[in-house]
């Protein structure tokens, strides 16, 4: 009996010794990350000098600055999944989200990052909307009047929000590009109505007390990325030029027809208005 107890104790001691000698898992392999940045002016034209863009690995706080060719690199970065930010004064901050870095001897080469200059444009007189058609079948368009001519080409982003005007707290957005403009102090594009399918296809917008539409200039280059929430982000937009708020029932449902009698009457009243917003 005593020998059995001693044998059991020896086995336990041996197991404990083996566990204590177990090596820690090896560290994640380190490696090089490289990439290239293309810098654009406010008209969307690529510059010849792409230097001065600060590239940051967000979670690590590591930074590098691009040279004239737009190149940058990071050495000895542990394997992992990282987000990168690209910033320069006067330019929109571009991001690359969820980039996998394997580490090891093979360098990770990131896709090109586009960094565009922000176009602030002339002073705006007001931003509102225009409606055409009947209460049961109509189209609604954003409209803006400026105090001086805009540059050509130019572009706009319209943000759809439910908590007031914002370029960060929004549900979705649309973009419009104007290669020419016969009325350089006005923004109105008859081919770019506010798509009711977006509103009726999103329960947050459809059920909101009001939808705020905020208008901003954008760089003509169409620089964008998809953020962690799956939204299209246009980083080169100006501050909000103005906004207007409408209820979802103002919009004709896809396929036409009435939403309900009360909503149809409300739509008829609202599309006849041109509310002025500074």
Write up this protein.
With 278 residues, the protein is mainly beta. It is 14% helix and 37% strand. The strands form five sheets. Strands 1, 4, 7 and 8 form a four-stranded mixed sheet that branches. The termini are far apart.
Rg calc: 28 Å
Helix content: 10-25%
**Straight-line N-to-C gap:** 94 Å
**Mind describing the biggest β-sheet?**
4 strands, mixed
Number of strands: 17
Q: Can you tell me the residue ranges where pLDDT is under 50 for at least 5 consecutive residues?
A: 259-278
Shape: globular
Order of helices and strands: HEEEEEEEEEEEEEHHEEEEH
What class would the helix/strand composition place it in?
mainly beta
Strand fraction band?
35-45%
Domain count: the total is 2
Residue-averaged pLDDT, rounded? 87
Number of distinct helices = 4
